[in-house]
């Protein structure tokens, strides 16, 4: 841990760094590939929308059922003629979801299920969700997401500038696309809990992005008055200065979510945890990635198109080229007038001046007269 803390301090001071901005084309390519995969998954498989979004019936059995999940799914499919989703709850009861059936059909399905499960029909609890109510929930979720995006963009444009707002918006769309694509590929059910988890991770993703943007804004004040660094180099320093902090906060947030997803939902079989835990896990990881590899490099791309910053880049490179030429030692093995000859490495460190050949020659020792 002390080594990690020392690494973070050295990154913050700029003693060591990784060129995130300089290699941005690699990160853009990786993100485009992942995004295309997610879109293909959405187009081919689609989302497994929960009963809250498409309507249907939910049946809950008494506790300590001896019937397995697979057997209950078979009974529900045969009784309804629709594909069902069965989950085993923590108290041993079964939750059976059947989408696309109305009130009249649910009564018939309830009688058939009770018979197959060897239960009194009165002990089989039934809850109905109308399709219009489910559609209303879906529309409200999309409206909430759109309002969230608009407000975030306006806030970032006011607090920072429009280029940072655009970069943050692109990173958010990137995170949403990847998360929904993973849901399509894995086949997990999309429920209101999924929407809650999605909105939560978007806020977390923005947190990391805003931290880097704030550091970048502070370090680029009066940037055109100096000729040491380009905008992209300062942006890279901002990422490196907050890198360990972003990694630490992301890992700490991922650990409990991983416990919910892999232990609670996978090992213990609490399937109701999957809908929210998967969106949190994928979204947190994607948000940390986008804040480091997408948002800030994109800001650097947009900013370096400005005429003032283009001129700054030219001045910085010209000064470095001039400094390199001045440091070239006299008598370097380059042919006269050959501009393509490779310059010899600059001399680093103190130079030993040659002693005068006639110094002290013929001088008697002792005090001068």
Automatic annotation (TrEMBL):
InterPro entries to which the protein is assigned, alphabetical: SecD/SecF_arch_bac (IPR022813), SecD/SecF_bac (IPR022645), SecD/SecF_CS (IPR022646), SecD_SecF_C (IPR048634), SecD_SecF_C_bact (IPR055344), SecF_bac (IPR005665)
Domain Protein export membrane protein SecD/SecF C-terminal residues, every copy: 112-304
Location(s), subcellular: Cell membrane
Record key words, sorted: Cell membrane, Membrane, Protein transport, Translocation, Transmembrane, Transmembrane helix, Transport
Membrane topology value: Multi-pass membrane protein
Bilayer-spanning residue ranges: 26-44, 141-158, 165-188, 194-216, 247-270, 276-300
Gene3D superfamilies the record matches: Multidrug efflux transporter AcrB transmembrane domain
UniProt feature, compositional bias: Basic residues: 358-369
Region (Disordered): 321-369
Chain intervals with Low complexity compositional bias: 330-347
One Pfam family, short name: SecD_SecF_C
Keyword Translocase: no
Superkingdom of source: Bacteria
Chief localization: membrane
Family that this chain belongs to: Belongs to the SecD/SecF family. SecF subfamily.
Subunit structure and binding partners: Forms a complex with SecD. Part of the essential Sec protein translocation apparatus which comprises SecA, SecYEG and auxiliary proteins SecDF. Other proteins may also be involved.
Primary role: Part of the Sec protein translocase complex. Interacts with the SecYEG preprotein conducting channel. SecDF uses the proton motive force (PMF) to complete protein translocation after the ATP-dependent function of SecA.
PANTHER family referenced in this protein's UniProt entry, alphabetically: PROTEIN TRANSLOCASE SUBUNIT SECF, PROTEIN-EXPORT MEMBRANE PROTEIN SEC
Name by which UniProt lists this protein: Protein-export membrane protein SecF
Species this protein is from: Streptomyces tricolor
Gene designation per UniProt: secF
